[in-house]
Amino acid sequence: MKSLSDPARALANGLAAIRREFQVPASFPPEVLNAAERAATKPLTEHVDRTDRPFVTLDPASSTDLDQAFAIDRSGADLLLHYAIADVAWFVDDGGPIDAEAWRRGETLYLPDGKAGLYPPILSENVASLLPAGPRPAVIFTVRVDPDGDVRLDGAERAIIRSRAKLAYDNVRNEDLPHGFVELAARIAIAEQKRGASRIDPPEQEVARRGDGFALVFRPRLDSEIRNAALSLAANLAVADTLFAHQTGLYRVMPEPDERAVRRLRFTARAFAVVWPETMPLDIFEQGLNSADPKHAALMLAIRRAGGGAAYAPLTPGIVPWHSAMAARYAHATAPLRRLADRYVVRATLAVANGRPVADADTAAFETLPPVMARADALAAQIDRAVIDLAEAVMLDGKAGRSFSAVVTDADERGARIQLCDFPVVARIAGDDLAPGDTLDVTLTEADPERRTIRFDRNG
């Protein structure tokens, strides 16, 4: 953690500037809010009553847009995960004002001082959110998990549920959770190892409020959060297999990091003094990283970015959609309040699981969603990068003239990319004589929070 005092409001003002620069919406147009008010009163006429099932939610304590709730049963040696997904589609008419605005946004945007939701709060933080305040509409995926962690979708239905508790990652106890929660997560982890998945869940680097100031932190992933992610993974894998079997769907795909990216990662590891044996492949190395170690955490983030990122792709005849980190077919279906694409994947899964054809609107959406989601993902990534750039500039402000040790992680016609050894900071310096792996000392010559820039020169 790097504490960032903000007496001159450099961070606060910088965050406001980022919102203006990237045109982060502050609210919704009146016609969208009016449509959401009307939609919130829509009666639930196609949902079976499952309020007797003991669902709970598990999220960050402050979350109010709750996409998932879960209950777990046993079926012989198998575990049955009843995974309830917020039925936002019930409230959104295709082509209506809410739908059109969601297509413009693509996903919820998060900043340290607040979020810009995909849907109006009356839906995303009220009637469509799986809060324990009362009955809520959901689509329940029943996922069968066998002792080896292999998953299969047993069914999907629209249902009314009632969450028993809003549990939080940072204070949940095992006894608060459905019996079988820990075992189910362990089964999924075993299956990942068996198929050679290299999925990693690094802690999130973020700017967090701390009293009157801020801090640049790696938010550690707690055991409860990692196990909860396993439930979502199980559902998304089962959905992907179901849709693929019916030759439809929208998938997350990701290529393997190329040779140059792996070489750059090795130099990044060297910068952090993390031992990576020359003969050890990336997928084995990353499984040994400890997210509680800040240097490992920074390296995990670099590994996640090295493959060029995941993308959305509709099913293409003759091509098996593949996600290299998952080592499997994979779809996004479990966060429809926060991602536009999930709403259509949920609807398609509900159709095929009940022997109905996928609606033409959903099939068409699978073809048109990839560029929309790519644009939304890119905007979210740009905002995240801008926030980190701002935090780094504030953190280094006033340190001009100070020397830092660094390692070159990459070099091209634009100069060299360096990783500071003692700070999670990446920067560029001029120099056509530098090669990846070179170690050097650099001097900070500029840190400008207003422009979100930092600049270093080589010593000597």
TrEMBL record:
Domain RNB: 47-355
Recorded GO CC terms: cytosol
GO terms, biological process: mRNA catabolic process
Alphabetized Pfam families for the sequence: RNase_II_C_S1, RNB
Molecular functions (GO terms): RNA binding; RNA nuclease activity
Record-given protein name: RNB domain-containing ribonuclease
